[in-house]
Write a structure and sequence with these properties.
Helix content is about 40%, strand content about 15%. The chain is an alpha+beta fold and about 180 residues long. The structure holds calcium ion (2 copies).
Amino acid sequence: MLAATRHRHAAHQGFTLIELMIVIAVAVAIAGVSIPVYVSYRERAKQQVTTVLVQAVAAAIDSYQVQTWTWADTTGARTTRPLWDLNNDGLLDGVPSSENAAGASPAFTSTIIDSGYMGCLDMARPIVGERFVSPQRRLIDAWGQALHVHYQAKSYGGGNYGVWSLGPDGADGTEDDIRSWEGH
Ligand SMILES: [Ca+2]
Ligand SMILES: [Ca+2]
Protein backbone atom coordinates (compact mmCIF):
# COMPACT_ATOMS: atom_id res chain seq x y z
CA MET A 1 0.00 0.00 0.00
CA LEU A 2 2.74 2.30 1.01
CA ALA A 3 4.76 1.31 -2.08
CA ALA A 4 1.75 1.94 -4.35
CA THR A 5 1.24 5.39 -2.86
CA ARG A 6 4.89 6.19 -3.39
CA HIS A 7 4.62 4.92 -6.97
CA ARG A 8 1.56 7.10 -7.66
CA HIS A 9 3.32 10.00 -6.05
CA ALA A 10 6.37 9.48 -8.25
CA ALA A 11 4.21 9.14 -11.37
CA HIS A 12 2.41 12.34 -10.50
CA GLN A 13 5.73 14.13 -10.06
CA GLY A 14 6.91 12.80 -13.41
CA PHE A 15 3.80 14.04 -15.14
CA THR A 16 4.23 17.49 -13.60
CA LEU A 17 7.81 17.59 -14.77
CA ILE A 18 6.77 16.82 -18.36
CA GLU A 19 4.12 19.53 -18.15
CA LEU A 20 6.70 21.91 -16.83
CA MET A 21 9.09 21.03 -19.64
CA ILE A 22 6.37 21.63 -22.22
CA VAL A 23 5.56 24.98 -20.66
CA ILE A 24 9.25 25.92 -20.67
CA ALA A 25 9.65 24.75 -24.25
CA VAL A 26 6.64 26.81 -25.34
CA ALA A 27 7.87 29.83 -23.36
CA VAL A 28 11.31 29.55 -24.94
CA ALA A 29 9.76 29.24 -28.39
CA ILE A 30 7.57 32.30 -27.84
CA ALA A 31 10.44 34.31 -26.34
CA GLY A 32 12.68 33.26 -29.19
CA VAL A 33 10.28 34.84 -31.61
CA SER A 34 8.97 37.81 -29.62
CA ILE A 35 12.19 39.16 -28.04
CA PRO A 36 13.99 39.74 -31.37
CA VAL A 37 10.79 41.22 -32.82
CA TYR A 38 10.44 43.56 -29.83
CA VAL A 39 14.11 44.55 -29.94
CA SER A 40 14.03 45.23 -33.65
CA TYR A 41 10.81 47.22 -33.25
CA ARG A 42 12.41 49.37 -30.53
CA GLU A 43 15.57 49.85 -32.57
CA ARG A 44 13.55 50.78 -35.64
CA ALA A 45 11.60 53.32 -33.60
CA LYS A 46 14.86 54.83 -32.28
CA GLN A 47 16.26 55.06 -35.78
CA GLN A 48 13.12 56.75 -37.10
CA VAL A 49 12.95 59.21 -34.23
CA THR A 50 16.64 60.07 -34.60
CA THR A 51 16.23 60.53 -38.35
CA VAL A 52 13.49 63.08 -37.73
CA LEU A 53 15.62 64.79 -35.06
CA VAL A 54 18.70 65.03 -37.30
CA GLN A 55 16.64 66.43 -40.18
CA ALA A 56 14.89 68.92 -37.90
CA VAL A 57 18.16 70.19 -36.41
CA ALA A 58 19.67 70.46 -39.89
CA ALA A 59 16.66 72.51 -40.98
CA ALA A 60 17.04 74.75 -37.91
CA ILE A 61 20.73 75.30 -38.71
CA ASP A 62 19.82 75.98 -42.31
CA SER A 63 17.55 78.81 -41.21
CA TYR A 64 20.61 80.45 -39.62
CA GLN A 65 22.55 80.07 -42.85
CA VAL A 66 26.26 79.77 -42.04
CA GLN A 67 26.37 82.27 -39.23
CA THR A 68 29.75 82.56 -37.54
CA TRP A 69 31.44 84.22 -34.60
CA THR A 70 34.90 85.73 -34.90
CA TRP A 71 37.25 86.68 -32.10
CA ALA A 72 40.92 87.50 -31.54
CA ASP A 73 42.97 85.40 -29.11
CA THR A 74 45.72 86.76 -26.84
CA THR A 75 48.22 86.87 -29.74
CA GLY A 76 45.75 88.79 -31.89
CA ALA A 77 45.11 85.83 -34.18
CA ARG A 78 41.54 85.78 -35.37
CA THR A 79 39.39 82.70 -35.14
CA THR A 80 36.08 82.16 -36.88
CA ARG A 81 33.78 79.32 -36.01
CA PRO A 82 30.25 78.38 -37.05
CA LEU A 83 27.57 79.29 -34.55
CA TRP A 84 26.71 75.72 -33.61
CA ASP A 85 30.23 74.43 -32.89
CA LEU A 86 32.13 77.30 -31.32
CA ASN A 87 34.44 75.03 -29.31
CA ASN A 88 35.33 73.02 -32.41
CA ASP A 89 34.81 69.59 -30.86
CA GLY A 90 32.64 68.27 -33.69
CA LEU A 91 29.58 68.10 -31.46
CA LEU A 92 26.64 70.44 -31.47
CA ASP A 93 27.25 72.97 -28.71
CA GLY A 94 25.54 72.60 -25.38
CA VAL A 95 25.25 75.65 -23.18
CA PRO A 96 28.08 78.15 -23.86
CA SER A 97 28.95 78.44 -20.15
CA SER A 98 30.08 74.80 -20.10
CA GLU A 99 31.43 74.65 -23.64
CA ASN A 100 33.50 77.78 -24.07
CA ALA A 101 34.83 78.50 -27.50
CA ALA A 102 38.29 76.94 -27.48
CA GLY A 103 40.94 79.65 -27.45
CA ALA A 104 38.48 82.45 -26.88
CA SER A 105 39.07 85.00 -24.16
CA PRO A 106 36.77 85.03 -21.11
CA ALA A 107 35.47 88.39 -22.36
CA PHE A 108 34.45 86.82 -25.65
CA THR A 109 32.80 83.92 -23.83
CA SER A 110 30.81 86.39 -21.70
CA THR A 111 29.80 88.17 -24.88
CA ILE A 112 28.44 84.91 -26.25
CA ILE A 113 26.56 84.17 -23.06
CA ASP A 114 25.27 87.74 -22.74
CA SER A 115 23.99 87.60 -26.29
CA GLY A 116 21.62 84.86 -25.23
CA TYR A 117 23.23 82.20 -27.40
CA MET A 118 22.14 78.83 -26.01
CA GLY A 119 24.20 76.51 -28.16
CA CYS A 120 22.26 74.29 -30.48
CA LEU A 121 19.24 74.56 -28.22
CA ASP A 122 18.92 78.14 -29.33
CA MET A 123 18.31 76.95 -32.86
CA ALA A 124 16.40 73.79 -32.10
CA ARG A 125 14.35 74.81 -29.06
CA PRO A 126 11.03 75.10 -30.90
CA ILE A 127 11.29 71.63 -32.40
CA VAL A 128 13.11 69.47 -29.88
CA GLY A 129 11.53 67.97 -26.77
CA GLU A 130 13.35 67.57 -23.44
CA ARG A 131 13.74 63.88 -24.26
CA PHE A 132 16.52 64.86 -26.65
CA VAL A 133 18.36 67.19 -24.30
CA SER A 134 21.06 65.81 -21.98
CA PRO A 135 21.64 67.09 -18.41
CA GLN A 136 24.56 69.07 -19.92
CA ARG A 137 21.98 70.67 -22.25
CA ARG A 138 23.36 68.97 -25.32
CA LEU A 139 21.17 67.56 -28.05
CA ILE A 140 21.21 63.78 -27.92
CA ASP A 141 19.81 61.07 -30.16
CA ALA A 142 17.52 58.20 -29.14
CA TRP A 143 20.54 56.28 -27.79
CA GLY A 144 21.63 59.22 -25.59
CA GLN A 145 24.61 60.14 -27.77
CA ALA A 146 25.48 63.75 -28.59
CA LEU A 147 24.80 64.77 -32.18
CA HIS A 148 27.75 65.52 -34.42
CA VAL A 149 28.05 68.52 -36.71
CA HIS A 150 30.61 69.67 -39.22
CA TYR A 151 30.94 72.57 -41.60
CA GLN A 152 32.71 72.22 -44.90
CA ALA A 153 31.65 74.15 -47.95
CA LYS A 154 29.73 72.03 -50.46
CA SER A 155 30.52 68.67 -48.91
CA TYR A 156 27.38 67.28 -47.41
CA GLY A 157 25.10 66.38 -50.27
CA GLY A 158 26.10 69.66 -51.89
CA GLY A 159 25.34 71.58 -48.67
CA ASN A 160 27.73 73.32 -46.32
CA TYR A 161 27.19 71.38 -43.15
CA GLY A 162 26.27 67.96 -41.94
CA VAL A 163 24.50 66.84 -38.80
CA TRP A 164 24.65 63.20 -37.85
CA SER A 165 23.98 60.61 -35.19
CA LEU A 166 26.40 57.75 -34.56
CA GLY A 167 23.46 55.35 -34.82
CA PRO A 168 22.85 52.12 -32.88
CA ASP A 169 26.49 50.97 -32.84
CA GLY A 170 27.77 54.20 -31.25
CA ALA A 171 30.69 54.30 -33.69
CA ASP A 172 31.39 57.15 -36.08
CA GLY A 173 31.63 56.62 -39.83
CA THR A 174 29.82 53.27 -39.92
CA GLU A 175 26.91 52.27 -42.11
CA ASP A 176 24.26 52.80 -39.43
CA ASP A 177 25.11 56.50 -38.95
CA ILE A 178 22.04 58.67 -39.46
CA ARG A 179 23.07 61.62 -41.64
CA SER A 180 21.21 64.79 -42.47
CA TRP A 181 22.50 64.79 -46.04
CA GLU A 182 21.21 61.34 -46.89
CA GLY A 183 17.61 60.36 -47.49
CA HIS A 184 16.21 57.81 -45.05
CA1 LIG B 1 30.74 71.88 -29.96
CA1 LIG C 1 27.52 54.27 -36.40
